[in-house]
Every structure is written in C-alpha cells, then in structure tokens.
Amino acid sequence: MSATRAAVAAAQRIVVKIGSSSLTTATDGLDSARLARLVDTVAARVAAGTEVVLVSSGAIAAGLAPLGLVRRPKDLATQQAAASVGQQALAHAYAESFSRYDLTVGQVLLTAEDVVRRGHYRNAHRTLHRLLRLGVVPVVNENDTVATSEIRFGDNDRLAALVSHLVGADALVLLSDVDALYDGDPRNGDASAVREVSGKQDMVGVRAGSTGASGVGTGGMASKVQAARVACSSGIPVLLTSADLADRALGPADVGTAFAATGARLSARRFWLAYAAGASGRLWLDEGAVAAVVDRRRSLLAAGVTAVEGEFHGGDVVELVGPAGTVVARGVVAYDAGEFPELMGRSSFELPPEQRREVVHADDLVPRR
Ligand SMILES: Nc1ncnc2c1ncn2[C@@H]1O[C@H](COP(=O)(O)OP(=O)(O)O)[C@@H](O)[C@H]1O
Ligand SMILES: N[C@@H](CCC(=O)OP(=O)(O)O)C(=O)O
C-alpha cells in the first residue's frame, strides 16, 4: 500500500466531502437510504477514534422535489430558495441519522467571506475546533441562501480543501458518483483509472471534465482535482472515490485515487494568503523579479514591477504575475495602486526614503506551487 493510503487510513482527523450526486437525485430529492449508509460509515470511523468533519453538498438538489422543480434552476434566486428548503431537510436527516449512534451534529454554513476575510477565517477556525473538542460531528456546507454569484466558493470541493486546512485535518476524502479519477471522463467511453497521483507528472494526459452525469453536482472532476491540488500542496493527502465505496475509503483506503501530499503544512496565515484571500489586483513582474521571489524567496522590489492592474491599497492581497501572464505568487502589497506609476522599474536608491521599503515583503509572499 502507498504511503498516501496508509496516511489516510491512519488519519486522526479527517474531512469527508460528499457530493450532491451521491445523496440526491434531481427527481426524487434526498435519498435517505444512501445518507444513512454514509452516516454508518462515518460513525464507525468516529467509534474507532477519528474526528470527522463532514462537508455535505445537496441542499439545492434536496430542495427541488419539495418545490416541484424537476431540474436545477439556472437563476440565483430560485437556487437560493431551493437551498433554503433543501438545507433544512439535509440538516434534519443528518441529525436523525447520527442520533442512531448517539452522535451530535453541528451545522456550519460558511460563505466565501468567512474565509476570504482574515478575521472571519479565525472565527470559523475557532468554532470548528471547539465543535470537535466537544465531540460533535460538524456538517459543513456553503451558505447558499445568502451567497451571491460574485462571492461564493462555487463548489464544495474547494470548500472542503479550505476546511481541511482550517481544522488541521490529516486527510481529505472526496466522495462522488465515480469510483476514481480517470484519464478522461468515463462517460465518454474507454478511460483508465489513475490510482496514485504523487505530482504533476501523474496528471499528464489526464482530462478532468467540469460537468458530471447527475445534473445536480457542480464543478465535475475538474473541481475535485483542483481541490486535491490545494490540499496536497499544503500537506494534506487526498483520497477520491465513490460514495458507494465510502466504507473502504474510510477503512483500509484501498480504493479510488490517492493524491500524495506534495508540500509542507503551511501556517494558517500563509495558507490563507495562498488559497483563501481574495486578490484585489495584480502586479506584473519581469523575469528577474520572478526568479528572485519564486526561486530565491526574496522580497519583491519596485524595480522588478512592470505594470499594475486593479484598485488596491497597501495591506491588500495581490497576485504576482510573470511576463507570460501566469500567476507566480500572491502577497500582501505595501503600497496603494496609485503610488505605482512613480515606483515601477526604479531602484531603491532612485526613490525617496519613504518609498524604499519592499513592494511585497518576503514574509508576506507565497509562491504558487
Ligand atoms: N477524468 C474524469 N474522471 C472521472 N470522472 C470524470 C472525469 N471527467 C469528468 N468526470 C465526471 O465528473 C463527475 C463527478 O462530478 P460531479 O457531478 O460534480 O460530482 P459531485 O456531485 O460528487 O461533486 C463524474 O460523474 C464524471 O462523469
Ligand atoms: N452548496 C451546494 C453544493 C455545490 C456543490 O459543489 O455541489 P457538488 O458538486 O455536488 O459537491 C448545495 O448544497 O447544493
């Protein structure tokens, strides 16, 4: 067995994400029998001493049937209404099902703001940790009823990766309606399962589509691969498989696709900076500056900035972009956007003393992995 699978099997704290397609159907709403099977599996792992945080999708899908809708609505207001009805049903079903094992659940509905703003991030962190200490199984979803299209996670795979870091999970398990990552969408015919992903080389030639078969999920396999990248690059291994194989995923971890952790654990601040914070603008860098900040982990100086985009202020998070337009890092900028015309391309000794400090200090900068 790979070290990744051994790590998932031995994890003391685990985030389990389940997709809409595994809990609901567009026509019948919530599938209580499938939900109960998932709860059986999670409860067994809790009984074995593991702390589990559940990230559950399905609010919008569960709200369709009670509202007489036959497919996921396209407009935001009806999606929010469906989520309001469906989340209620989902929370009730989990509370009842976990009570069979004398387990208490706590509903945690997060908006993107809760992780984008650093103060809110700390708040969510505190609540989740306290719930775990109290022996509660937190059941997390996006707060769809108030999320608007501009500020939303969009898919719960990304939310699950962020929550994994928030709670300091040892592993993330993504449960969907497909048993593994394939080199192409298995609905389109011949495709081979990818069993282990230990780096970029294992993803060469893999096409992860952004839609699913069920019509109720969001993001398809593309969002799961992206979420796995976020978790792995901050030290959290990921196992991806189908909800039908949940008992083996949470048992010997001998199914699905295992994504190895590729980076060291990031501190809460650096993780927030790298993956959670919203960027207010972009700084374009020349080649020399890219090498300095990415390879040599130096601070960014004004001399290496060639252009700026966006309306930002000193203290905001910005993306650092290389000459080809690729994001190479994110960081907290020290100056307002309006100050850059005077600063760009100039060496420190050409600038007045008050403008000689770094544009982005090395401590406030996280290269893209
Ligand atoms: N390369 C791939 N490997 C596996 N599944 C894929 C791939 N590309 C696209 N898919 C599709 O992604 C779907 C899962 O995504 P989605 O419906 O969003 O699930 P969920 O509701 O669990 O989040 C699968 O049903 C599958 O058809
Ligand atoms: N927050 C939404 C889920 C969005 C989502 O990502 O769904 P899925 O792709 O099924 O995990 C809901 O509960 O309906």
Automatic annotation (TrEMBL):
Residues bound to ATP: 17, 176-177, 218-224
GO molecular function, one term: glutamate 5-kinase activity
Enzyme Commission code: 2.7.2.11
The organism's place on the tree of life at top rank: Bacteria
Organism ancestry: Bacteria, Bacillati, Actinomycetota, Actinomycetes, Pseudonocardiales
Protein name: Glutamate 5-kinase
Primary location recorded for the protein, binned into one broad class: cytoplasm
Organism the protein comes from: Saccharopolyspora cebuensis
Binding site for substrate: 57, 144, 156
Reaction catalyzed: L-glutamate + ATP = L-glutamyl 5-phosphate + ADP
